[in-house]
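Re: Re: ligand-bound prediction request (bumping)

Still looking for help on this. To restate: I need the protein modeled with pyridoxal-5'-phosphate bound, output as structure tokens. Inputs repeated here so nobody has to scroll up.
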Amino acid sequence: MSYVSHLEGAIDAAVLPARTLQTLHVGRPIWVRYDLDAVRDRVDRDAIATRAATLWRYHELLPAEDPDHVVTLGEGMTPLLECPRLGAALGLERLLVKDDSQMPTGSFKDRGQTVAITMAKFFGQRRVAIPTAGNAGGSMAAYAARAGLEAWVFMPEDTPQINQLEALQTGARAFLVDGLINDCAQIVAAGREPMGWFDLSTLKEPYRIEGKKTLGLELAEQLGWQAPDVVIYPTGGGTGLIGIWKAFQELAALGWIESATMPRMVAVQSEGCAPIVRAYDRGERFAEPFAGASTIASGLRVPVAVGDFMILDAVRASAGTAIAVDEASILEGMRLAARCEGLVICPETAVCLGAAERLRGSGWLAPDARVVICNCGSGRKYPHLMTAALPRLSSAEPCDWDRLLQGPGP
Ligand SMILES: *Cc1c(COP(=O)(O)O)cnc(C)c1O
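Reply:
Sorry for the wait, this slipped through. Here it is.
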């Protein structure tokens, strides 16, 4: 038995039954709610440290009915790395990177998929489908294979090749669509009845948030049951930001964190696709679709987010902010992290470095703030962004060493 008490419509707080298959409620996402009093009574926070190093160590705060029958690839408890050299480059004395590039399929999408696929299987689903602009499809395909479910993946034509490959390698039926992720989402929605699949789109079922929530639970545990001062999060659909904030709410309700201070949540987007930042700047709770969305950070190319108000609520409730960064800073940020710390970060995370620098510059971030940036995925999935500029050498001619020395550095 899980500690789930009920599900709740995020837009109207309607109480919905747990243990039934759920998608959206009045077109908006659903929260999973727990009997936190029972968890507080029966679970010893400090005993968690002795459990296996996967995100399922927090199973009392997750929806699976039986923690021994979850669909897992050993995901979670990724390192929280101190980054003094990268921090110094950004003017931050206490920068930490939560390195989710070390997840089974190389991105933090695995957090959501291990939980969502576990629940889909529990509810008897045989076929699952997802629209994806990047890592979600590969992750879902891997967990579906692990669970023995059939996976269908729909992605824009310009989805990074490695993400296309991931879906194929793990046996998914994969398709390229001449549109954006919301066009792919429409195909998945249209196929729900005729194809009989379960729609695992971001926030269209309640459980991916719960998986992403473990980012916040791990952060708290790794910091000795404290919250960081600031979490800087690259925001596409926003599951992670919503999940981290939910984690700290639940930890506070449980009395599991040492101080009452909550992290300030920063939503970062690229100027090429910044619907959430625009709504934040206008003081609105819902975001308008972002026309002409375009960014090399494919995980952020989300012109319409069905959980927009959940992201904006978390940002405002936490006294955080939302900020857009220019595209040019992305490759620069990827090189900077690699050079300073040997960390191969994804373009989405590089967007956060640009944001940190700007927020430091404006004084919004104090130099001694304990700042966490999530490295959401491996930069090794984006060879096309980095290798195009490699200089060529002719094997037929002797090397001009002076020219090599003067060439562009790392
Ligand atoms: C999906 C993804 C994001 C965006 O995450 P959301 O939770 O959808 O906002 C950022 N970075 C990477 C690498 C991703 O795969």
